[in-house]
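Milestone M4 deliverable, item 7.
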Amino acid sequence: MRNELHLFLASLVTLYFELLIIRYLSTEIRIFANLKNLPLIASFFGIGLGMLLGKPNRRMRPVLPAVTALLFLATRFAQRLHFSFGDVSWEYSLGPPAGLGSRLLSLARFLIVALGYSGLIIAFFAVIGGFVGQYLKQVSPLRGYGINLAGSLAGLIGFSCLAFLHLGPASWLGLGFLLLVPLIARDRLTIIVFAIVVGVVAVPQPNTFWSPYNRIDLVEMPPPAGWTRASAYSLVANHSWYQWLVDLSPEFLKRYPQAEPNRFAVPYYELPYTLVPHPKNVLILGAGTGNDVAGALRHSAEHIDAVEIDPVILEIGRKHHPEHPYDSRRVTAYTGDARSFLRKTKTKYDLVVFGFLDSTTLLSSFSSLRLDNYVYTVESFQEAKAVLTDQGSLVLSFATGRNFATDRLYATLKAAFGTPPAAYFPGYWVRGVLLVEGYARNTTLPQLVDVSGELQARTTGVLLSTDSWPFLYLTDRAIPGTVLVAAGLFLLMAWIVLRKTDLIGWKNSPAHLHFFFLGAGFLLLETKAVTQLSLLFGGTWIVNSLVIGAFLAMSLASNALVSLRKVSTSASYVILLMLLVADFWFPYSRVSAMSASSRVLVGGGWAALPVFFSGLVFSSSFQRFASSSEMLGINLLGAVLGGILENAVMIGGNPILKALAIGMYALSAAALLRIRPQLVDPFRHAALRRA
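Output delivered:
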């Protein structure tokens, strides 16, 4: 019983810290906001390495204090260490092209930070994963795997609870440290270092808030002389400026027409109502702290639905916006995903405003797809068109300027509405573009630069943003070179580590290859399902946590079934592959139009079925082998391959995830067919050689 409790705790701690590190890095170091699957695969590799070693390695365990201090303190002080520089992993840029020397320097900094952190993550999880491997060996395979899944589910729930409470890194690390103490009770130095790290991270950071998506810093701007209350705030999300909270009330502007930053914001927030004066019903997607809402109120909108995905940003707007727009009875605020709201609303709107939804936030900790991408697709704009009145208008602003992303937005709107939108370059505040569709498309704005003709001429044959390929920020269907270089160097680093630890003997073993490809297939299957379910139910952190939790629970259910009765691996494989092939023709668009309960039953059930049968395959195979920690470790190394292959979605879109998953499962089945009754375990020979 003691071993089982330790296994549960080790499994809980492992997934908890995996989520913690991915979340912390993505807010403090900008490159990981768009490259979140690199810490993910580094975590998988480290955990797999620890399990293969079978227990915390004697050479690696002493370095845990130093690794812990470097990993978390470098993240805490990333700004001072100049680690949070511009991201070069995506080809989206507002500025002029950089020179060759500058680009090479940026690439070098990118690779040093990306791979340096990857190395620290691997070392950290090699020790933590070693605890899982150590205790997994002392429990029967199926029971041990079930406990591992249950512990992982508990880790997910624990971290999700902290996110729900809007707690920050000090709480994350404090709880993680307490959970880890029973496993490292004899390592006094590690305990002391971890306590110091928690204490340093817990030092208060004034005016800093933590949401499930962002680190948010709010700074009050000095009001003009004679004004007794706040007139503006600056809001920074993940160390990147996000927006001003500005007083644009007639009372303030009459007294202080030149006040900054207020005067710069006036044209932007007045424009929609120059096009659509005095609208009855207004929908604002990406309402943020309330500037757009205040603009609608000033122009006598009768009712405003304001949708904002980040609950903390919305709450900051309620408390601190100088005009207090969310206090109005004419405003109904919704915390949630824009696409989900468009599907479920029954209201018709005279004006739909797309605010700045780009929050540099990822869809989830298990995908390289960006959350805001799905707001700017043909299907999303079609859903927005469907909620407009006969004389309704859509106004979209985006900080792209003369950039390929502007061309793509223009062409995507044109495809959704069937008519070319009106397009303007405002030329103030930010280097942005204003796109207008619907009834107001023919209203001219002489104060702006009309670029409709220019964009119309440039957008012939432009690659559209769709739910299948939602990459607004990629110039074409290609993986950015920096991502390829980082992935290649990571694989080289991983190979060197495996050689140094004498753990590469598995590469010729059909049994180990079977589990390796199962791991790759499952990660791709999980990413595919998370992506599809986020489109059905919304891309919020709650939805994604529930989806991942449901997958763990489904794997736990399949493991329980295999422990109770014999299950045919061949039949499970056939059904799994048939489901994956059938998914190419599954009518997700029809499911999205169903009621919420029907979407859960039909869409959620369909997504869960492959996970269940994949779990049957894994548990049935897992039952046959005594070396459970090695097999699970190899499975996690396979997940590393799946995480790298996931980047192919930038080329082939979401359908390629299904194709790659089918390929990985087919390879795992082929390896299983090669297994003979008497297996040679290369790890045992490696252990004998080391002894």
